[in-house]
C-alpha cells in the first residue's frame, strides 16, 4: 500500500513541477518598458509660418493651383508652427540631398535620445542584449544598427535588427520582434529605436498626391528601453498585455495607396492616394476583430453578442425596411472604454484621428493627446505613438493599473495595435515637461490662412510666386 502511494505521489509531484516551470517561464516572457525618451530637436530647426512660405516658394515647379492646394492642406492638417524639419531644409539643399545628410540627421537623434534613456535608467550600453532600429526611408551601409553599436561600444554578441520600408506602424513591428526574442531568452535588456529620415525624401515636384507628404511629416524619434527581467518589474513603467498585427499587402488597392515612387518627371516622392482612407478602414476593422476579444472584459463581449443577435432577429422579423419600428435601429457597437482607459493614436493626420474617434466612439478628452501631438510635433511617422504616450504621462493621466491601447497605420498597408498596462503611477514630463502647461491651447487654428490667404484671390494669368 505504501509503495502504491509512493508511485501515485511521483506523477503528482512531477505534474506540479511542470506546472511551476510553465508558470515561471511565462513570467520570464513578460515584456516591460523601463523607460523611453522622445527626441526634441533644437529650436533652430523649428518650422514656422514665414519659413514654410519661403520653403514652398523655392519649388519652381509649383503653380497657383498647387499653392492653393497646399494652403488648404496645411490649414486643415491640424499641424501648428512649432514642428521640426531636418537641417538640410534650412540650408536650402532639400532638392539635392546627400547620403550624409540622412545619416547625420539620424545620428543627431540617436546620440541624444539613447544617451538620455540609458543614463536615466542607470543601464550601461554594454548591458543591452537586443537592438531593434526602424527607419523606413533610409538604408545605409554599415546599417544604422551598426552605427549605434559602434558609437556606444556595445557588446559583440548583441542581437541587432535593422528595419526599413515598414512605414508609420514600424514601432509596433519592432516591439513584436522584442516580444518574440524575450520568449526565448531570460533576463534581457532591449533597446527599440524608432524614427524617420526626412533629409533625402523631400518632394520637389508638383504632383498633388506627393506634395501632400511635405505638409504632414516632421522630424522626431524615440528610444525605448525594455526588459523581461521580472526582478525589475517594480521599476517598470508599462507591461505589454497583447499585440496584434494586420497586413493587407495582398490587396492591390491597399498595397498601392501609400507608396514611394517617382512622378512622371522622375522626381522621387511619397504618393498618398485617394483610396488611403478606405484601405485604412479595412485594415483597422480586421485588426479590431482580432484584438477586441483580447482586451475587453467578458461581460462586454456577451453584451455585444446579445445586442447583435437581437438586431439580427429584429431584421428577420420586421424586415430591414419595416416602417413600424418606433424605437429606431439598435446599435451593436462595442464599448472599448470597458477595457481601455487611454487611447494612444498615430498622428497620421487630423482625418486619421477623427476617423478613429468616430469608430471607437471616443470623446475629445480621449483624442486630446493625439491632437496635441499632431499640433506640436506633426506626423513623426513611427515614433508618433510615443509622443502621444508622453503627453498622457506629462498630464499625469496614467495611473497604476490603467490600460493604454496603441493604434498605428503604415504603408503596405498595415494596421498594428497593442495594449499596455501601467505598472505604477506616472507623471514625468519627458519631451513635454517644459511646455505641458500650455496644452491644450484655446485654439488649434494655425496662422497659415491669415498669412497666405491672399493666394485665394490671385489671378492665374498674372500670378507671380516671386513677388
From TrEMBL:
Top-rank taxon:
Eukaryota
Q: Which EC class is this protein assigned?
A: transferase
What does the record give as the reaction this protein catalyses? a very-long-chain acyl-CoA + malonyl-CoA + H(+) = a very-long-chain 3-oxoacyl-CoA + CO2 + CoA
Alphabetical keyword list: Acyltransferase, Transferase
Q: Which Gene3D superfamilies match?
A: 3.40.47.10
Q: Which residue intervals define the domain FAE in the entry?
A: 26-312
According to UniProt, this protein's pathway is: Lipid metabolism; fatty acid biosynthesis
Q: Which InterPro entries match?
A: 3-ktacl-CoA_syn, ACP_syn_III_C, FAE1_typ3_polyketide_synth, Thiolase-like
Annotated Beta-ketoacyl-[acyl-carrier-protein] synthase III C-terminal domain ranges read 338-421
| Enzyme Commission no | 2.3.1.-
Key word Chloroplast present: no
What PANTHER family does the record tag this protein with?
Answer: 3-KETOACYL-COA SYNTHASE
The text of the family note is: Belongs to the thiolase-like superfamily. Chalcone/stilbene synthases family.
- The name of this protein is 3-ketoacyl-CoA synthase
Supply the source organism's classification.
Eukaryota, Viridiplantae, Streptophyta, Embryophyta, Tracheophyta
